[in-house]
Structures are given as structure tokens and as C-alpha cells.
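Quick one:
INPUT:
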């Protein structure tokens, strides 16, 4: 049974949005799904595929201008929009179309890590907790009023593991809070001002090249944070590899140099050293360091 008889409209584009859409469809009547089209006809679009499988009406827009034009006409009846992982800046035209606005499920404890990639920067910062903030969108960068906020311990999670847990937490919060908000039982409140806001950004391919002058602790965080993209790449002689798991060990040497001892491969960094646990050679599957050394020891 759905949590409310009212309809809601969903905004989302990425794989996180696709999973959120599937979960929300179990508890809400979804009038429409707003997403972005495929860049190429052969490109998979998880949200479009999920919406089609669920039998949901879908509208695709490539730009803010196209999105604004659609919402100049009274096409949808929903009083509330819900946005997860959308990727297009939403203007006042779109926000004001919905009498109750648009709720954004943002994967950080706002005002911490406003911006495009809060999950990655939560891991990079080494903080103990992340979480989900349900925020009413305004025209600022994640500056809107909150409806709810809940913590989640990071517990040494990588990006993939943390994302999955945050999606589950987000769905639980939306399932409980949207009906309350629709019924006027949940009142928006300002973001806390206990600390200055922090900001994330979109990653680039260059972020994935390991800088061995950094501390081993920071590089290990990057390996976990960049596990989905842009990956953490290193050069071992003439072999380019993606390092997928490592741990910090004592050691001192020239940053970027490495030592092979038995079944261990240790890189020296700006502070301490990094023992490699798993990696992916170019064109190969992920393997343990012992398997890698068994096959490549003679050429490294």
C-alpha cells in the first residue's frame, strides 16, 4: 500500500537516482520522472530504463532552458517534486511550479559538502560520519531549508559501499518524511550554523593519478573514494595499474619508489608507506597482490 494517495514527481539521472526511483516507487504514486536523455543512442540511461520497467511516464531534457520551457505549461499535478542525483541546475521557474517545492535528498550533513560530489569528499576528508539531508531546493548551492537530517557512520567504507548505505537511508527518510510534509506535519528549518560550509566539486580524470608525495593516509583515502571513478592509477615499471585496495604501513623512502618483498608490494609516500592489497593491471580483472606478483614479478 502506498504511503499517500498524492502523486509526486521525481527528478534524477544517474545510477543513484535509478536505485532511488525503484525504492520510492514501492511507497509512492509517481506521476512523472524527469531525467536527462542519453548522450548517444546506444548509451544506457539507468533512470529511463528503470522508469520504463516500472511503467512510469518519463520526460527528458538536455538543459536548464529545456526544463524551464516544460514547466511554463501546467502539465503535471503533483504538489511536490523529489530530486536525487539529477545533474541539471533547477531554476526558480521549476521550483515554484510545485506548491510545496522540491525536496532534494543530498548525501551529506549539510552545510557540510555542498556541491556535486559529497560522498567522495566525505571519504577524502577522513571524517567519522556522513549522512543524508532532506532539503528544500532554493536557488543557492544546497543552501535550502531542511526537513530532516540523519547521520551514518563511515566505518572505513569505500565509495561504492557508502553510496549503497546512503541510498537505503535516503529511502527510509523519504518514505517517513514525505507524507508528513504533504500533510503539513513537518516544518522546514534552517541548516545549522555550527561550522562554516564546506564544498565538494566534480572530479576529473587527473584526480585519479596518484601523487606519491602525499601522505600514505591521504592516498589510501583516495583509493577508496575514487573506486568507481576516476580510479587510482599508478605506474609499476612500464605497467599501468589501478590500485583498488591498500593499507598504511611504516616505511621511509623516495616518494613513488617501491619495494617487492615476498608477496608484498610497498610504495613509499611523502609520509609513511602504502602496502598494496589489490589492483587491476590494464585490461585485466582485479587481483590480489600475491596473484599479481606471481604473474608479473619478472617484469617489475
Amino acid at each position: 500500500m502506498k504511503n499517500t494517495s498524492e502523486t509526486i514527481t521525481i527528478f534524477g539521472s544517474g545510477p543513484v537516482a535509478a536505485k532511488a526511483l525503484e525504492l520510492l516507487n514501492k511507497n509512492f504514486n509517481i506521476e512523472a520522472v524527469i531525467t536527462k536523455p542519453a548522450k548517444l543512442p546506444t548509451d544506457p540511461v539507468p533512470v529511463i530504463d528503470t522508469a520504463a520497467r516500472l511503467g512510469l511516464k518519463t520526460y527528458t531534457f538536455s538543459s536548464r532552458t529545456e526544463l524551464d520551457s516544460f514547466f511554463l505549461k501546467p502539465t503535471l499535478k503533483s504538489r511536490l517534486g523529489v530530486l536525487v542525483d539529477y545533474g541539471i541546475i533547477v531554476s526558480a521557474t521549476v521550483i515554484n511550479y510545485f506548491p510545496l517545492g522540491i525536496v532534494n535528498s543530498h548525501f551529506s550533513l549539510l552545510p557540510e559538502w555542498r556541491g556535486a560530489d559529497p560522498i567522495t569528499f566525505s571519504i577524502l576528508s577522513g571524517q567519522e560520519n556522513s549522512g543524508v539531508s532532506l532539503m528544500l531546493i532554493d536557488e543557492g548551492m544546497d543552501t535550502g531549508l531542511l526537513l530532516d537530517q540523519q547521520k551514518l557512520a563511515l566505518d572505513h567504507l569505500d565509495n561504492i559501499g557508502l553510496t549503497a548505505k546512503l541510498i537505503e537511508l535516503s529511502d527510509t527518510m523519504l518514505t517517513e518524511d514525505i507524507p508528513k510534509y504533504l500533510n503539513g506535519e513537518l516544518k522546514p528549518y534552517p541548516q545549522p550554523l555550527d561550522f562554516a560550509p564546506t564544498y565538494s566539486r566534480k572530479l576529473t580524470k587527473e584526480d585519479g593519478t596518484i601523487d606519491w608525495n602525499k601522505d600514505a593516509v591521504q592516498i589510501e583515502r583516495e583509493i577508496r573514494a575514487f573506486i568507481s571513478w576516476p580510479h587510482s592509477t599508478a605506474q609499476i615499471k612500464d605497467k599501468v595499474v589501478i590500485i583498488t585496495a591498500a593499507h598504511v604501513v611504516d616505511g621511509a623512502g623516495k616518494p613513488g619508489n617501491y619495494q617487492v618483498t615476498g608477496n608484498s608490494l610497498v610504495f613509499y609516500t611523502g609520509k609513511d608507506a602504502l602496502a598494496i592489497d589489490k589492483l587491476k593491471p590494464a585490461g585485466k580483472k582485479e587481483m590480489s597482490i600475491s596473484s599479481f606478483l606471481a604473474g608479473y614479478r619478472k617484469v617489475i
